[in-house]
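Hi team, as promised in this morning's meeting, here are the two structures we talked about. I've kept the exact order from the run log so nobody has to guess. The first one is mostly here for context; it's the second one we should focus on when we meet again. Sequence first, then the predicted structure tokens.
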Amino acid sequence: MASQPTIRVEFEGKARVGEVLGNLANLQLRAEDFSSPIALQMAISRIYTEMMRLAEQRPQAKYVGEVKFNDSLGNQVVVGVDLGDKIPPLGNKEVKARVIVEIYDED
């Protein structure tokens, strides 16, 4: 069985490690939330409802990494990485990151 051709690209970037409340994942604004005044009102209502629901729960700490790098066309890309519920064994909150992208055919 012959191996499928694979294209592999590596990007270098920076990551910022921090702590967030794990149950706040639904509290986010998206680009489409700013498409009209009605869309923004719906987003605010969605966030308010979620905050009220979360007020009834116990907060859960979670560590995340915000990874920033520039793609091959020079556009900035930001990716969030779940690092678990224990503090990562890194010396600083600002660290380097390597992002590996593999493009392949599934056939």
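And here is the second protein, the one for discussion:
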Amino acid sequence: MNARAIGTAIAAYTVLAGAVTVAGVYFLTHSGLYVIGTGGVGVLLVVLGGAQGVGGTFATGAEVETDVETDAGDVPIGSSWVRGAAGGLGLRVALLCYGLGLFLWAAVAVSLFGSSLR
């Protein structure tokens, strides 16, 4: 994988999108429960992003024939500026980076603004 594309995906999804989402939840609700819930959604997205790369069938020895030669991890998502910033790395990397950003920024918000949360 391209190191520059991964760096831009981290910057776009983890730093920018994660911070905007958690800040929006914090300023709209001032509720610690919602901020912690946002962190939980981030953990869920990280798990889904990691599990997307795991393929196969439940039956051992079963062969699956497909006519499609595409990998779901290579499907670009988001608007055109995000696809350009992420270098077209795909859904798996986007879910991992965005989920990590939600979790980390929620942890920062709870630790910094814990006394002002309801």
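Starting points for discussion:
The CA atoms of residues 32 and 113 lie 9 Å apart.
The chain has a mean pLDDT of 79.
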